[in-house]
Amino acid sequence: MNPSSSSSQPTADAVDQAFSSAPSEPDRQRLIICEHCDSVYLRPVLARRQTAHCLRCGALLERARLLNADQLLALTLAAAILFLFANAFPIMQIGLQGLSNEATLWGTVEALAHGRITPLALVAGLSIIFAPALQIILLTWVLVHARSGQIAPGFRACMRALEHLRPWSMLEVCLLGILVAIIKLGGMVDVHPGIGLWAMAILTILILLILLIAGRDVRDGLWDELDVPAR
User: What's the whole-model pTM score?
Assistant: First the structure.
């Protein structure tokens, strides 16, 4: 095992010793297996910014957590507030010759539901409203219990659902489409970004931060921190 870190060298040596010394009766919860060569090691306690690599193939085995449960919960609650703002306020206002109209996220889904493109409305509603809402609800449920050191009821089902919802949450795609529409319509009509668009932009950044940048902390860190028993 080859641990690397931006901290002092003695800490890295302690990590290497923890990996190389196997106990007589190792606890399965403390073992880590390389996904590439199936080498088995004893999981160490990594300091901040430390990473552990496999001695055989050099693959990344584990990375120190970037955010703890309190920080993840704070980001999730902020995302919940922004989600309410993004859906309650208009994302843009269009004006032409004294006439104006506003559009919200839910209003765009309702507009797509009329006519022959109703299936597209279902996909849009799932990807920009229901999937992000379920992600926020499940994360809040899991992290509220994790903050007090408890395993949330239905923990395994929640974590599996979060994994399945990740490909369906497409707030960043919707945001990019809205920005392109604003640029294209800017030369023909008066387009003004609404509060909902700003909230949606910040919400997209938070969702990406929680599920992509700190995704390992959510997926793997909570399992280890709460010592969830294996079935």
Answer: 0.68
Which helix (DSSP H) or strand (DSSP E) does residue 102 occupy? strand 99-103
* Tens digit of each residue's pLDDT (9 = 90 or more) over 71-117: 888 888 999 999 999 888 888 887 777 777 787 888 888 877 877 77
Q: What token pair was written down for 68?
A: 């703890």
Strand partners, 99: 96
Q: Write the CB contacts of 155 (distance below 8 Å, at least 6 apart in sequence).
A: 142, 145, 226, 228
Nearest alpha carbon to residue 41 among 3, 79, 80, 93 = 3
Residue 132 located in a structural domain: yes
Residue ending a domain, choose from 34, 63, 92: 63
Residue type, 212: L
Phi/psi for 105 (5° steps) reads: -60, -45
Residue 26 φ then ψ, to 5°: -65, 140
- What's the domain range around 124? 69-226
Whether 129 and 19 map to the same domain: the answer is no
Is 187 among the domain residues? yes
In a domain, 136, yes or no: yes
Rounded CA separation 9/5 (Å):
8
- Please indicate, yes or no, whether residues 140 and 107 belong to a single structural domain of this protein: yes
CA torsion, points 125, 118, 108, 197, in degrees to nearest 10?
A: 40
Overall domain count for the chain: 2
Q: Is 231 contained in some domain?
A: no
pLDDT in tens, 183-199: 877 777 787 888 888 99
